C-alpha cells in the first residue's frame, strides 16, 4: 500500500571537495527527483555579478581560494531556504562547509541525509583545469567528460561559458587545502549523527547509479519521478 499521507519534504546535503562532482550529481538528482537545488557557490557568484553588498564582501575570499566568512554565507543561504515552501524537498550543495555553519543549520532545519562524494584530489586537479561554467545557471561542462555542443557556448541558452578564476591550478590547490582543514571535519559531524552516505570513485558515471539507488529506495521513493 502506498502511504501517500506520510509524504514529507526531504532535506538533503551534497558534500565533497571542490570539483568532486557536486554540481554534476545535483543536476542529475533534480532531473530525476522532485527537489529544489540550492548551491551556495552559485548564490555567491550571482551576488558578485550583481555587485551586491554580499557579493562585494565575498569576492576576495573566493578569488583567494578561502571560505567566505560564516556569518555572510549563513545569512545568504538561510534566507534562500526560508523562501522555499515547507512542502518542497531541497538539496543543499556547497553548504555547510564549516562546523559552525553545520551547527547553525541544525538549529534551523532538520536534515534527512548527507551525500558525500569522495574523489581523489589528483582526479580533481585534472578535472578543474577543463571545467567550463555557465555562470547564471551553474551548468558545468568538461572538455573530456561532457563537452558543450559548441565549444565555449552553453547548450541551452547559447550564452558564453567561462573558466572560473578560482579554477586556476594555484587557487585549486589552496581550495583543496581549505577543504581538508575546514570542511573535511564535517564528515565526522554528520557520521556521528548517522546521516552520512559516502561514495568513492573517480568517475561520476560510476558514482551516480549508487546515489540514485540510495535515494530511490531509502530516502524518497515517493518523489522519484524517473524510470528506474
Ligand atoms: N573527466 C570527468 N569530469 C567530470 C566527471 N564528473 C564531473 N566532471 C567535471 O568535473 C568538473 C567539476 O564537477 P562539478 O560538478 O562542477 O564539481 P563541484 O565543484 O563539486 O560542484 C566539471 O567540469 C564537470 O563537468 C567525471 O566523471 N569525469
Ligand atoms: N558554504 C560556504 N562557506 C564559505 N564559502 C563558500 C561556501 N560555499 C561557497 N563558498 C565560496 O565559494 C567558492 C566556490 O564554491 P563552489 O561553487 O561550491 O565551488 P567548488 O565546489 O568547486 O569549490 C568557494 O571556494 C568559497 O570561497
Automatic annotation (TrEMBL):
Pfam families: ADK, ADK_lid
Gene Ontology CC terms, in alphabetical order: cytoplasm; mitochondrial matrix
InterPro entries: Adenyl_kin_sub, Adenylat/UMP-CMP_kin, Adenylat_kinase_CS, Adenylate_kinase_lid-dom, ADK_active_lid_dom_sf, AK3/Ak4_mitochondrial, P-loop_NTPase
Subcellular location: Mitochondrion matrix
Keywords, alphabetical: GTP-binding, Kinase, Mitochondrion, Nucleotide-binding, Transferase
GO MF, any single term: ATP binding
Full protein name: GTP:AMP phosphotransferase, mitochondrial
Organism the protein comes from: Ciona intestinalis
